[in-house]
């Protein structure tokens, strides 16, 4: 193999690896950028308005609901980005591995074609294995459900104008416990957070 052919293959290999690296970096930047990560600005503003009296029960519970909600939303965005990023990059590498073997002009050397295709296939398999063994999908889903439940509790808390504030803490704790159980796989089904008796006794509003 001539030096010019080797140089051409090296340049194309570096360009392909750089492209895959850029895609991975783009996914990581997207899910970790605070200005892009999904949040509920309306709920955040409404709960923050209850912090006028920092030492009050209403302020304490509003802060607990909001902080846990924002944390679970960020975690959901992170694990979603990692899971789908690994999935899409693995699919791309698998497609490139198959395509390289069919190309006639991109890489003319058959040995280089096979080596590059094998490398892409191995990396794709590793990404899928890591994503599966790391339960990235389960972590994303557990945080997404917990965030939705905390958001619902936040609006219930606002509707009640903070009445019986401390009774909401048990529901927040139950949601976080269910999230951890779902992540580690301790239970196949999530147990719905119980409605506090103080709220339940009020009955439906007219």
What features would you describe in this structure?
By secondary structure, this protein is mainly α. The chain has one domain (3-200). It has helices spanning 3-32, 41-48, 57-102, 110-133, 136-159, 167-184, 197-200. α1 (3-32) packs antiparallel against α3, α3 (57-102) runs antiparallel to α4 (110-133) and α3 packs antiparallel against α5 (136-159). The model has no long low-confidence stretch (mean pLDDT 77).
Give the proportion of residues in helices.
over 70%
| Parts with pLDDT < 50 across at least 5 consecutive residues | none
Shape designation: elongated
Number of strands: 0
Order of helices and strands: HHHHHHH
Distance between the termini: 84 Å
Alpha-carbon Rg, integer: 25 Å
Largest sheet: none
Sum up the structure in keywords:
206 residues, mainly alpha
Question: How are the SSEs placed, and which strands pair?
Answer:
Blueprint: H1 3-32, H2 41-48, H3 57-102, H4 110-133, H5 136-159, H6 167-184, H7 197-200
Compose a concise summary of this entry.
The chain has 206 residues and is mainly α. 75% of the residues lie in helices and 0% in strands.
């Amino acid at each position: 193999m001539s030096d010019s052919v080797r140089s051409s293959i090296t340049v194309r290999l570096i360009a392909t690896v750089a492209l895959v690296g850029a895609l991975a970096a783009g996914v990581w930047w997207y899910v970790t950028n605070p200005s892009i990560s999904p949040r509920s600005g309306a709920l955040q503003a409404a709960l923050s308005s209850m912090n006028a009296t920092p030492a009050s029960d209403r302020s304490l519970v509003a802060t607990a609901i909001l902080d846990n909600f924002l944390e679970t939303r960020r975690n959901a965005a992170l694990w979603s980005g990692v899971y789908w990023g690994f999935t899409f990059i693995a699919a791309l590498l698998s497609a490139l591995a198959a395509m390289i073997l069919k190309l006639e002009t991109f890489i003319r050397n058959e040995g280089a074609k096979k080596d590059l295709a094998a490398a892409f296939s191995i990396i794709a398999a590793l990404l899928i294995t890591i994503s599966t063994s790391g339960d990235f999908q389960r972590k994303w889903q557990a945080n997404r459900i917990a965030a939705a439940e905390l958001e619902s509790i936040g609006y219930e808390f606002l509707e009640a104008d903070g009445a019986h504030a401390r009774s909401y803490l048990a529901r927040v704790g139950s949601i976080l416990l269910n999230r951890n159980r779902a992540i580690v796989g301790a239970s196949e089904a999530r147990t719905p957070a119980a409605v506090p008796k103080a709220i339940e006794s009020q009955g439906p509003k007219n």
